[in-house]
Each structure stands twice: as C-alpha cells, then as structure tokens.
Request: fold
Amino acid sequence: MKLTSLEQLQKIKEKGLQQTYPGKIKIMVGMATCGISAGADKVYKALEDKIAALKMDAVLEMTGCIGFCQQEPLVDVVYPKKVRVSYATMTPAKAEALVEALNAGEFFGENVLCRIDQEEFLVEGTKKTYANPHPPELPGDVPKYEELPFFKKQVKIALRNCGYIHPERIEEYIGRGGYTALHQVLTGMQPEEVIAQVKDSGLRGRGGAGFPTGVKWEFCRKAAGDLKYIICNADEGDPGAFMDRGILEGDPHAVIEGMAIGAYAIGASQGYVYCRAEYPLAIHRLQIAIKQAEDLGLLGDNIFGTPFSFKLKIRKGAGAFVCGEETSLIASIEGKVGEPRPRPPFPAQSGLWGRPTIINNVKTWSHIAPIMARGAEWYAGFGSETSKGTTVFALVGKVNNTGLVEIPLGITLREMIYEIGGGIAGGRAFKAVQTGGPSGGCIPEEFLDTPMDYESLGALGSIMGSGGMIVMDERDCMVDVAKYFIDFTKDESCGKCTPCREGTLRLMEMLEEVTAGRGQEGDIEKLEKLSRVIKKMSLCGLGQTAPNPVLSTIKYFRDEYEAHIWAKKCPAHVCKELITYRVVPDNCIGCQLCRLKCPVEAITGAKKVVHEILQEKCIKCGTCYEKCKFDAIVVE
Amino acid sequence: MDKDKCTGCGVCAEACPIRYEVQLPPEEEAKARSAYAQATDEAVVAEIIDLYRDEPGNLLPILLDINSHFRWLPRPALEHLSQELQTPLSEILRVASFYNAFSLVPRGQHIINVCLGTGCFVKGSPRILAELERKLGVKHGETTEDMLFTLEVVRCIGCCALAPAMRVGDDTFGRLTPGQVGKIIDSYTKTANL
Reply:
C-alpha cells in the first residue's frame, strides 16, 4: 500500500502503537552489535525457549541499544498496566529465572538497573506514562531511569527511539511519530522554508567539522543543475566512535526520514547511504528499513501523493578511513580509488558525478525530522551559544560507565567523565581524554572544566570530531598513544599528497625511536616542526589533522616525552623496551599462579619457592603482573 | 559487418579508432583468461556482475561481492571483470589494492579480525593480538597453513564499550581477556574437524 494521506499514516501509527505496547507482558532484548557481542543473542534464545516451554502469553522482541553498553546484555520488561523495568548484565540462566518469575505473576528482583515510568514521544512532544509506576511488589529502592547518573543529563533527540522500538518494523517508528515531519514538509512547506528552519535551528554538521547544515543546503539549493544528490556519510571510521552504528542499528528510519526531507529541500531525487562494511548488522537493518519505506511509498515516486520523488540506495565501504572525507567518499561511490581532491569546488556545487551534492553524517540526518516537527526554536533551546542542540558521544575507555551518551552541547568534560561516566574505573587517576579520533587531541585534567562545543575543544588543540571520547588513566603512556594514532594515519593515508604520506611515516619512525629508548636531544622539536608542516601542507582533512595527537600530547605531556628521551623510562610502564618485570622476593609466597599463566615459560620456581623471571625469555606481556594477588611482581 | 555487401576496400579498417587492439569474440576472450579454480566459479562471478551491470560506479559493489564469496579476489575473476566492464585490469587492481577489505591472496575459512580501535587499544587489545599470534603461529595479515584461520586487524568494529573486542567470521566477541582467546579459537577448530 502506498500512503497518500495523513489519515493512512495515522492507521499505521495505531498499528505500530499496538505492536510497541501490546497490553501484555513484553520482554525486550537490546540486540545491537554491542549487545550481541556481550551475549544478548544467547539471552534471547534462552528467553524464547523458556517462554515456549511454559507456553506463556508474552511478547518477546528485540530492540536497539539504549546506550548503556557497559551493562549489556540489557533486558527490559514491560509489566502490563504497571511499569517498565530494565535488567542489566543478564545471562541465559538469569533470563530463565526472569521468565519463571513473570509466569508466576511475580516481580523479578535481580539484576535490576532501573525502572522507566514514562517514555517520551519526542517528535510529538508528548509523554506516555506507564499506568502504575509504583506497584506494591516493586521494591522502593529501584532507581528511576532519569535518576541514574548515566541518563540524568542526557537529552535524546538523535537516539530518541533507540532501545524503545523494534528497529526492523516501520510501524513502530511511525507509532512514535515517525514520518509525520516528512508529511508536514511535503504538503505544507516550500523547500526554502525547510532550509530556513534548519538554519534557524543552528544545527551544525555532526560529522566533525561543524559546518552549519542549513547554510550548506542553501548553497546546494542555489547551485545550477536539475540533477542533485544527497548522501549520508555512515563511514564511521574514527576508532572509538560507534554512534552511527547505534543509530542505524536502533532506528534506521530516523536517518531515512531526515534524508527525504533534505532531498526535498535541495531538490534531489536520488540518495546514497555510504556505510562501512565493518557494520554488517547496520547495513542489514538499513536494507530492511529502505524496503519497508518503499513498500509504504515513503521512498520512491510521488511520496504522499505529491510530485516529490526520492530513491535511496546503500553503498558499502571497503575499509578505507580516508573515505570519511567527503571528496574521497564521492570518489568511492563513483567506483574509484577513494582519494580526496582539492576543494573548491565544494560538493555542494560539484559533487557526485559532477552534480551538486549534499553530504551529511548519520547523526545530522537523524536530527532533521524532530527539528521540522518541533521547530527551530525548540531545537536551539538546547546547547550553548555557538553550538546548538545535542550530540551523541561514545564514552569509552577507562571510565566506569561506557556507552552512547547524547547530551546538549556545552556541558563540561568533567560532568561527562565523572557524572555520566561515573569516574575512572578501578579507582585509578585520570590522565587524559581523547576526543575526535585520529584527528583530535588529548586533553589533560586541568582543562576538564571546558565546555564541550566546537570552539572550546578546538581552542585546546583537539576537535569535537564525530564524537568519540576515550578516557585514559595513569596506566596509559601518552607517547605510546601518539604513536598509536600516527600508526593509524600512516596506514590510512591514501598516499596522494607527499606531506601526509611521507610525513606520517617519518613521525612514526621518530616516535618508535623515542618509545624504544633511543630518543635524542632535539627529537621533540623535530616532531613539532614536522607536525606543523604536515598540518599546513596536506591536501585533505586527514593530513591536516593527523599530527594533532602528537602536538597535543607534546603540549600537555611534554614531561612524558622527556622521561622517554632523557631518563629512558616510561612513566606509565607501557613501552616494552623501557620496562622490566621483577619478582619481589619478600612478597612472593610461591603460589605458582604467575608461572602457570606465563605464556612463554619465562618464570621459574616451585611450590612455596620464590619465583624468578628470566629476563631473556620475558616478552613483557604483563600477565604475571596482573595475575599476582600478593603484589609480588613489580614493573620498573 | 554485413559480409554480403563488403568489397574489402579497407577504408573502415583505416578509420577504425581501435584497430590496434586485439578484438576477440567473447568465447575466445574467455579462453584467453586465466582459468578459474572451479568450473562453477565463472557462473558465480557472471551473476554478480549482472546484478550491478547497469549501475553507475558498480566496480566497488562487484568487488565486495566477489571478495565475500571467495574470501579473496582470485585473478581469473578480476580478468573476467576487466573484460565485462571494459575497464583495464590495472585500474581494477589499483582499486582492489587500495581498500583494506580486499585480499589478493587466498584467506582462511575463518577470518579473525582483532579490533585495534582506540577503545580496544587502551583496554589491551595488543595483548589479545599477541596471544592470537602465539596461538595460531602466524603474524597478523597471515593465514594458518591448514587454511583454517586468517588473522587480521581492523580499525574499530564499533564495540568500543565492550572493549577489547574481536570478530571471527560473523561472530563478535567482547570484553576479551588473553586467557579466553585460546578457547574461542579451539571452538572453531573443533567444528571444522567434525
């Protein structure tokens, strides 16, 4: 059936709401890649089998990632006419116990993460409150969703449906207000009005550079040519960032609707989603979503009976980081080697096959529908003076709470790491936070009160980037981290321009010398000088930002470089050439644990005999150090 | 060419812009290629090419499908593609060698991808890699002698919150410790021996 009116959309919506809220016990399992790798598929299977065995009248569904990846596998139970409860770190055994409790009409009280009293239908601006948030059987100490430090400061716009709907059912997306914005735009707004609204909202590209989205659209709208293209950049190459995957796996229609609105605004009839091949599940769910949208006439010819037509195709990446750069991405869609070209002309003037093209990131697209539905003013109400709205960060590394976090721009790094992230794992000391992937920098503790927006992070020598945020503690060597990133950009440099191709290689060689204890006087200055040359002379964003990790670590952690060069020591005990593991005879009780765990048999000793590490055999893997329960192994 | 009308004057041969290129009829062309390892392979590749034939910029999707079918890009398939798409083999090889996803050498039955993204890196994925290299007796980028495993590294599979992570074929494993790695590999070895 092809939808042509709002009434028909309403009918689907009712069906969707029926599916999302079936009026009986509903169990939901978070089945994004993160959940599955934590064992959600096994939990799902256990639930399925148990429900079948007990012949229980319950609905079992999968959903996307609600963002709290640390607590995966997550299982949510909607107690009919009562409340929704989230269960964390579930196992197949616990899942069976859960079903048994539910079947007996009881409340399952283990592994409880929080209770959700109400859900927000963001696009409509309404809330659905569960009938009885305080059923008597619910213990009083179950925290509310909005009270958990991890969720407290979050405002979910891009992630509005992730963890609430079945990502492979368009009805459930429509049920929560999906595609009404598209209908509103196509039937009641001129393209110029759409662009004006995006401009007024202050939305800036969430892919990294932060260019105002509306302004870019306007360029493209005004560019000559009747054939224009629209592209979604889902080539999320930054290591440590996975929000695009989260959105595509949890709510693919949010991206499709945003792209359709964008296509109408600039006058395009063909779109591409360029998604990296490393995300098979995201591609799979996107394929399903596009098919469903086509079946309902929400993609294709004459959408909602209007003259507007828009077709969408998926293009898979083939594992090249540089293809996240827009001109490389275009070359890759054209079937060529993904090498960038100089700009101007910008893609908005001459892009895919020489036609005006708009490229926006997954996150940017997912903001469009709510901006249309709720208005520019509403959206601009979030965020800071120059950076409006919300953005999604991937908070990972050495924090207690890892996951996807959507926050209004402008909250401080400290709030992010210590409140949302719950502080540093294992009670260790914070050292640095790395933002913006290989193009970003490492920010030390003294700048933790900096607000997170495009300008402030830029001033510190880092960038907002696509939103990866990796927290490092005292056990991370900053020289080693710089080396890691340069190794990455060295490998991923496409080789077209010399400063980037040769420069990153030379930086890598110098950093290898330093971390091997062969650094010399003047190395730091040489690193800085070469970094500046690469920044200035490179062709595209990859090279222009590649030295940022080196420059920012030298700027803030110069003492660590100096320790490597002068004292030939690695203060964080990471660089293998500069450390040795040794047994402290007074502490060693001869338990043999380290001896048995050593992968290369480099430890001698017998039961109740003090052990010894054979330095010539030791590969410095650190296993003994971690396994020892008596602090009998030291690293120096 | 209409043989009945031809007088053999040679004017067309002079004017032809591609007269110095060897023009073979399709069946001769197929014979000139390196042979496929299996007779059925040619049909598979032909089917993949047909799927994308009319699409602009189809080289990458075709190569990806061939790569996922064979787990690498065999030479006969690339020659076949070169003829079908009328694209020089050198251009195809340039694309095939540029992208990380493609392999120009045969890969094992199970492709292991150890994630070396930043999230995994700070949580110790280099040690996972070192353990795998020891266990399998190959360096990353290499394939075991029995063609069972190919060990590769990948720049982030998006499982950063469950770092360190790795992928074996289509299965993703998170929160790894070096100690678990051996067991995971053994489970694949066992299913292979059944």
Summary: Chain A touches chain B through 63 residues (CB under 8 Å). Chain A has 25 helices and 20 strands. Chain A has five domains: 6-152, 179-379, 390-473, 478-567, 580-635.
